[in-house]
Amino acid sequence: MSAAKKEYKRITIKSLMEMKANNEKIAMLTSYDYTMAKIVDNSGIDIILVGDSASNVMAGHETTLPITLDQMIYHASSVIRAIDHCLVVVDLPFGTYQGNSRKALDSSVRIMKESGAHAVKLEGGGEIKESVLRILSAGIPVMGHLGLTPQSIYKFGTYTVRAKQEAEAAKLKEDALLLQELGCFAIVIEKVPAKLAEEVAKSLHIPIIGIGAGGGVDGQVLVTHDMLGMTHEFNPRFLRRYANLFDDMNTAFKQYITDVKSADFPNKKEQY
Ligand code: KIV
């Protein structure tokens, strides 16, 4: 069971560590623009992730690979202008940190300087060790991301559950420990068996935020457009829908069209 929610005026990395220590679950959602971030922040969310899922959700790409650093900075700066409570973490996009720690630092510095974000997130474990270390050495907080890492989708081939086999599960545990030892403040673990994710969460002192990783971790993240039911063609088992905005918006748009076509809108009170 989760502990009672302590009131935090502003969420910091220290608050997240306290939440883990106090057994309070961490709630994280994505945002990519000012208006959505304003509503999400107002709800009392702990973390907003400016995810590279913006590539799918905002731009309609099939994968997260095409989004650029400039585009991520644009999304992140729009989000930052909206918030006054939560911590904002920004994904480093594909090709801006892998295999070149100098480039990883430059990309992270650009995100922090040009958007005003509070932390960056990178996908991978041992293979991005040098990049993580160099970013951390500049005082930039880093969140890890293990399990299903969508920037490697062409290596995996599918979006199915990861680390079901012992060898991959062992590598995930090793990577999680390494990221903690390097100094990451939290790790997202995506689409792995609940038992494995819980084991990792219990063995580390930094928070583990799950997506499709069961309830035994320290917090949860969902893509806001998915949990609001705006992206109604995406139906993974882990997704709980809290609204059905696709249908609600469709109804509103249809009513608007009817009102315009029938000259019902605007009426006398809606004009000057
Ligand atoms: O880009 C994103 O939205 C993410 C979450 C799915 C964790 O990385």
Can you give a write-up of this model?
This protein is of the alpha/beta class. The chain folds into two domains: 13-241, Phosphoenolpyruvate-binding domains (TIM Barrel); 244-272, no CATH class. Helix content is 40%, strand content 13%. The protein contains eleven helices and eight strands. It has helices spanning 13-21, 34-42, 54-57, 69-80, 101-115, 129-137, 153-156, 166-182, 194-203, 224-227, 245-261, and strands at 26-30, 47-50, 87-91, 119-121, 142-147, 186-190, 208-211, 219-222. The protein has an eight-stranded parallel beta barrel, surrounded by seven helices. α2 (34-42) links the parallel β1 (26-30) and β2. α2 packs across α4 (69-80). The longest helix is centred in the middle third of the chain and has 17 residues, at 166-182. The N and C termini lie far apart (57 Å). Bound molecules: 3-methyl-2-oxobutanoic acid (KIV). 3-methyl-2-oxobutanoic acid is lined by residues 30, 49, 51-53, 91, 188, 190, 211, 221, 223.
Question: Any chance you could write out the topology, listing elements then pairs?
Answer:
Blueprint lengths: L12 H9 L4 E5 L3 H9 L4 E4 L3 H4 L11 H12 L6 E5 L9 H15 L3 E3 L7 H9 L4 E6 L5 H4 L9 H17 L3 E5 L3 H10 L4 E4 L7 E4 L1 H4 L17 H17 L11
Parallel strand pairs: 1-2, 1-8, 2-3, 3-4, 4-5, 5-6, 6-7, 7-8
Helix pairs in contact: 2-4, 4-5, 5-6
The protein binds 3-methyl-2-oxobutanoic acid.
